[in-house]
Amino acid sequence: MISFAGAWIAMIPLWIDGFRRSDPGQGTPPVAAVCMILMMLVPALTAFGLTVRGRGPRAAVRLLGLTRATPWRHEARSAATALAIPLALTAAGLALATAVGWYAPAHPPGPGTLLPLALSALVSLPLYFGEELGWQGYLLPRLLHLGRTRALLTGGAVWGAWHVPMTALGGSYPGRSPLLGVPVAVLTATLLGTVIAAVRLSTGSVWAAVAAHLSLNEFALPLTGDISGPVVDPLLAGPLSITTWPASALAVLAIWLANRRRGATTPRTDL
Asked: Which residues fall in a coiled-coil region (predicted)?
């Protein structure tokens, strides 16, 4: 609840100002960027504040999954895999969007496109820890008593609902009514959040989850527009679009089947 309240508080200036994203090509004003940065930091600050009480900073860092759970080489492979997952899901979605005429790829990305994205991702890295320390470091372990699959889906739904203060302003789907944008965003986040949380559980740390979230926002989203001819409607094409739902749903199904094979749906409370 603290993170939800903090998200709404962070967005208050935009609601007062009457800001709304009405076009996919619309830039982000400085005030909106600051509000979004503050919003992304809320979950981590909340999680750390709740965890550090009576335990101390070192214990909080360990409990939130910031310490390495495996050797560095394995961590690097996990992060690389996590970076690739959103790109693969997006590629599958773009193939479907192209097939139905909602997307028109124009050219592959070159070094001039990828280098600025990589630099932006590096600068933005702390913001993704801001979210994932809260969702995957703090919330997910506390949902595992529901069983692994239910915990993953519930965490994804919570993550989607937390974005409502921004989504209702056209954050994910510019120009669309909140009556459409909000439920689509929540369902999309439930699917993608489940995949990100599964990455977190498979590695035992939040680092890979951060890599997956960063890949989604810093690479999959902008690359969708960069390699397209016309302006892209994010509702119809891209990582947050309805055409990516089938691939994401198949990934969630694979996670569920894997959990069943391992007997991981038995309630557990540890990582």
From this structure: none
